[in-house]
Design a protein that fits this description.
Thrombin, subunit H; five-stranded antiparallel beta sheet; about 40% strand; Chitinase A, domain 3; 2 domains; single chain; four-stranded antiparallel beta sheet; elongated; binds zinc ion; mainly beta; about 10% helix
């Protein structure tokens, strides 16, 4: 069975940046994903197409097909510290959940701190980076009706709910 729309793939991965540093990996168990629903970054989902159990491969994906280029408009300078009511000791590197335009929340990080303002970056932490994945496919199966309805994989390595 090959990976394509409405199949669930399980895979081990190691993710490295262009400097060869490991950023992330599947640790205890393979990760499960439902193909065809944008559950992986676009460049990786494309590489997964037609792969089957036992396939091992490396792929390098440009930022535009990974987490996107850095969007300047998501970087806000001179945000007053008074915006962070109830948070003491704001430091560079702290993450917050911010209200996104049109509802929902997204994660932002403090990248610079001045006397009474900070710079806040709403880009994905891996935006602007070319990423290399080492992949090993450990299983391919049909998706259940429920997984297709939910547009993601369930069970081991998938969503638990
Ligand atoms: Zn679900």
């Amino acid at each position: 069975m090959k990976l394509k729309k409405d199949k669930v793939g399980l895979f081990n991965y190691t993710l490295k940046n262009t400097a060869g540093e490991e950023i992330d990996s599947s640790s205890e168990q393979p990760m499960a994903y439902l193909h065809g629903y944008g559950n992986l970054i676009p460049g990786l989902e494309k590489e997964m197409l037609s792969k089957t159990v036992g396939n091992k491969f490396n792929t390098t994906i440009k930022a535009v097909d990974a987490y996107g280029e850095i969007a300047e408009h998501l970087i806000q300078k001179e945000v007053p510290l008074s915006m962070f009511q109830g948070v003491k000791n704001i430091e560079v590197g702290m993450r917050f959940e911010a209200q996104a335009e049109g509802g929902g929340v997204h994660s932002v990080i403090i990248t610079e701190k001045n006397d009474d303002t900070v710079t806040v970056d709403g880009n994905h932490p891996l935006a602007g980076q070319e990423l290399t994945f080492e992949i090993e496919i450990t299983a391919v199966r049909n998706a259940t009706k429920e997984e297709i309805e939910h547009k993601h994989a369930h069970g081991d390595g998938g969503h638990q709910h």
